[in-house]
């Protein structure tokens, strides 16, 4: 059973999950191209994964069989486990609890070698719907306070499986990164009224220099203070805190801008390793939901995070976002 | 001139330093072993670096010549630059200032292929003294509020030069990571009285399970909630906030425990890439100095930081610190 431990000075939680040290990887030890012969995410090998918790497949076809277009299963080597209670403990200055949560894998398509940038928009939309449905379902578990949807693309970004997948982890506390963002939204609301991200959208539209794509309902742009070269955010231009309230139409529009953005990143930067993280409102909030505005942060991993960043929390970035926007714009739709 | 930009939501500062994109690296493109033929940190090539700001060398020998045992120079490709004022600007929700600061390199020894783990203790102590002297000198510049001493060892940890070196960067604001730690110290003091790190030391001594080395004046231990496998902290067992108050005797004792710790890490983990960061009290504090206790955090880089960590600020670690302490203890002094 994983354990959650809290750093007594800064309150940062760490997941100790010794079992994850034993999980297999299909790269780099396996040759690219041979992983497909044994890949548990490929159609026909559904029995190699834990049972599915969600799938899109034609009516009448059976669960855990072939025919799916998107499939969600529990992670076989979970960072957090679904059973039991938190059972918080304290010992002097130290606090810990059992590593209760959920860790699931969204298999993005049946095609082993596809990735989000190569999939058609309606298939990306199916992945976006799967994330929404899993958030809605996991929200029913009152132990959970947040659901982090994220993607690791490429070994350098922490991926251990080649077959295209996105992940989600439900956590029993609101993560500190979210807490920081919520604090920023609250501070701006008190000082200026309104939503800080709505203000940012307005300012980006006025200046244009960092915008990559503006569509009917979404904006893709390079943030003013990016941690990483070519860091790109996608935000709904309408104010909405919770991703899971999105309609199918919203998610198709989101998939369209996400696909175009990822294709520009793949084209401009030679399919770089990247992470993306979805930031959405906490779930099962007691009382009034806090002010928030959901968004996706895409972070190509072209440089190493080094001592200065670890020590200070400052980031050094050698590519100004205005330059990055220009480069990515020149790779749109080609 | 680099620019500091503030993320308007979470207040995180980012250093935009386009010039650093052009800096040379002597690995991996250069073959290991050939870098020494052109290395600007080697004796005899002092003119290839900016002028030295500190060195230990026998009396009577000239600055910027040979004969030094430790030498500190400005970084030729600085993240922050020493000239000018901050000139803070704001534009709607966005804030920025000029990238004013200092970025220096401590060349740890004349020996190109030495590293801190292979150097004798008195040479490590010379590096520790150089860091102290530079902090003391830079504190005289009232624009600076913090000095981050850090080391990147190995390309995977962000090093771009092979010749053993430690770095320091003086920043015009107190970094958020330090602010978080200062907040934790203040919270504990208000709630319980006393220093949280002194309490941790007491608790570690009582339980022993995470201790690697206990010497007369220092403790090396695996923290209760480590972000990374084999993360190791070194702390003075006496309460002191500011590293730069250390006497030569203190720093020799620090060098001894640092050397033993690094040799155990090199031995147990096959000379892994690692970062270390020194956390010490802010400088030029207006008013009463805040409660703090200086310490060094050593972070081997054996795993990738991935989407979950970026999204949440939680860390997943597959090696419990009690296990890591056992492994490292078995590699002490061999």
Automatic annotation (TrEMBL), chains A, B:
Signal peptide residues on this chain, from the entry's feature table: none
Source superkingdom: Bacteria
Binding site for Zn(2+): 39, 42, 112, 163
An annotated GO BP: galactose metabolic process
Galactose-1-phosphate uridyl transferase N-terminal domain segment(s): 3-175
Example of a GO MF term: UDP-glucose:hexose-1-phosphate uridylyltransferase activity
Record keywords, A-Z: Carbohydrate metabolism, Metal-binding, Nucleotidyltransferase, Transferase, Zinc
SUPFAM superfamilies referenced in this protein's UniProt entry, alphabetically: HIT-like
Cofactor binding note of this UniProt entry: Binds 1 zinc ion per subunit.
Transferase listed as a keyword: yes
Positions annotated as active site in the UniProt record: 165
Pfam families: GalP_UDP_transf
Cofactor(s) required, per the database record: Zn(2+)
InterPro entries: ADP-glucose_phosphorylase, GalP_UDPtransf1, GalP_Utransf_N, HIT-like_sf
Classification via PANTHER family: ADP-GLUCOSE PHOSPHORYLASE, UDP-GLUCOSE--HEXOSE-1-PHOSPHATE URIDYLYLTRANSFERASE
This protein's name: DUF4921 family protein
Organism: Eiseniibacteriota bacterium
């Amino acid at each position: 059973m994983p354990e959650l431990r809290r750093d007594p000075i800064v309150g940062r939680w760490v997941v100790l999950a010794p079992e994850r040290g034993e999980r297999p990887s299909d790269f780099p030890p396996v040759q690219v191209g041979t992983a497909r012969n044994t890949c548990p995410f490929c159609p026909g090998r559904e029995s190699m994964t834990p049972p599915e918790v969600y799938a899109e497949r034609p009516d009448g076809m059976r669960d855990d069989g072939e025919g799916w277009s998107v499939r969600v299963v529990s992670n076989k080597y979970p960072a957090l486990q679904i059973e039991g209670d938190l059972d918080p403990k304290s010992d002097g200055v130290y606090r810990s609890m059992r590593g209760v949560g959920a860790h699931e894998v969204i298999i993005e398509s049946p095609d082993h070698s596809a990735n989000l940038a190569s999939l058609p928009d309606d298939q990306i939309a199916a992945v976006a719907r799967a994330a929404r449905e899993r958030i809605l379902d996991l929200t029913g578990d009152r132990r959970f306070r947040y659901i982090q949807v994220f993607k690791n693309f490429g070994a350098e970004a922490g991926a251990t499986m080649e077959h295209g997948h996105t992940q989600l982890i439900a956590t029993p506390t609101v993560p500190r990164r979210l807490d920081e963002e919520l604090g920023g939204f609250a501070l701006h609301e008190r000082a200026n009224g309104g939503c800080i991200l709505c203000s940012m959208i307005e300012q980006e539209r006025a200046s244009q220099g960092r915008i990559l794509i503006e569509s009917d309902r979404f904006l893709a742009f390079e943030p003013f203070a990016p941690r990483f070269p070519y860091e790109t955010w996608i935000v709904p231009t309408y104010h909405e805190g919770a991703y899971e309230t999105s309609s199918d139409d919203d998610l198709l529009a989101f998939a369209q801008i996400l696909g175009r953005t990822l294709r520009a990143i793949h084209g401009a930067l030679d399919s770089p390793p990247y992470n993306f993280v979805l930031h959405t409102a906490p779930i099962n909030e007691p009382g009034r939901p806090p002010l928030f505005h959901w968004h996706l942060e895409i972070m190509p991993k072209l440089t190493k995070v080094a001592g200065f960043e670890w020590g200070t929390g400052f980031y050094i970035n050698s590519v100004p976002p205005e330059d990055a926007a220009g480069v990515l714009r020149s790779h749109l739709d080609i």
